[in-house]
Amino acid sequence: MNTRAYAAMKAKSELVPFSFDRREVGAHDVALDISYAGICHSDIHQVHEEWGPAIFPMVPGHEIAGVVTSIGSSVTKFKVGDRIGVGVFVDSCRDCDNCKSGLQQYCEQGMTGTYNGMERDGKTVAMGGYSNYFVINEDYAVHIPENLPLDGVAPLLCAGITLYSPIKHWNVGPGKKVAVMGLGGLGHMGVKFAVAMGAEVTVLSHSPNKEKDAIAMGAHHFVSTNDPAAFKVHAREFDIILNTVSAELDINQYLSLLRLNGTLIVIGLPGKPYAVEVGSLLNGRRSIGGSMIGGIPQMQEMLDFCGKNNIVSDVEVIKADYINQAYERTVKSDVKYRFVIDASTI
Ligand code: NAP
Ligand code: ZN
Ligand code: ZN
């Protein structure tokens, strides 16, 4: 099926209108009209080749919300008209221990990314969600609760699950002091989820103008990290720090904010290694952990949780011809708090 999209034709180039053919709907596939696609900072890292060589033309986009338009003959999970979400991967081996336990993002053979990679047939380049139409195997898509608006839901498919998963894994909840580093697309979902779980939540931000929004989202405290004194005032305060920052920074400063046995969870992926002073870890028996998106069962659990608790992303809905400005503004931390493309404008 001919598909309209926006693509980067080469590394670091602007995105331009583009078209390509998606596969026919197979027996286990569902087809969807995309309603909205979020702009994740990972899209920008990959267009800019900040994570190494990438495949071009690239149609980014892995925060996809839409409506099912047709289903294959063997499909049981969806019917035409269902609201459907697609995230960061579209397939995996299905056979390794991690796939079998619903942790497809950690597939031992590597998950099949929604774009910037090959599909499992080894010859089709995966094309992402900045497009009007998508085809996916039913096992790798999720249901969107009826009560939530599709534009605010799209970012849940990456930003949402990426924070929900570590928040559950590290038992963020009542009695825990949690800090979220960076109030961007991921960070603002981290605030909403950690607050919903009952934790005491602090935002650590280099943008003082975001304080009012952070508090409106439910954060209990806001700390401007531009003031070096903040690192003294808040030393040894937090049980858990969720680091969603997309840029390089001095990680040791942030480790000093962990109390005894505290953990800093790395989620942001600037593409360069952090220089960790081992003393920052030893002094306080501190840990560094990492977490990558979430598996299909947990994506569904997260969306159902959002449906029950009325949680969606704060979005700026844009037309497709604004994507390049949206990239520039995201890099400057100037977005409230996720750009979402209205796919009808592609
Ligand atoms: P984003 O919307 O651009 O948010 C990043 C935030 O980091 C900014 O809003 C800003 O918050 C802070 N920041 C940016 N530059 C900074 C600087 N120079 N110094 C200090 N703070 C800075 O990006 P996102 O879409 O949330 O993604 C965040 C990171 O997570 C990216 O690296 C992305 O690739 C990665 N990611 C990881 C996963 C995973 O599975 N682990 C999944 C998706 C994305 P303040 O203005 O509040 O300081
Ligand atoms: Zn993402
Ligand atoms: Zn696997």
UniProtKB/TrEMBL annotation:
Pfam entry (one): ADH_N
GO molecular function: any one?
A: oxidoreductase activity, acting on the CH-OH group of donors, NAD or NADP as acceptor
Membrane-spanning segments: none
Q: Which cofactor does it need?
A: Zn(2+)
Source organism per entry reads: freshwater metagenome
Keywords on record: Metal-binding, Oxidoreductase, Zinc
The Enoyl reductase (ER) domain extends over 12-346
Keyword set includes Chloroplast: no
InterPro entries under this entry? ADH-like_C (IPR013149), ADH-like_N (IPR013154), ADH_Zn_CS (IPR002328), CAD-like (IPR047109), ER (IPR020843), GroES-like_sf (IPR011032), NAD(P)-bd_dom_sf (IPR036291)
Protein's name in the database = Unannotated protein
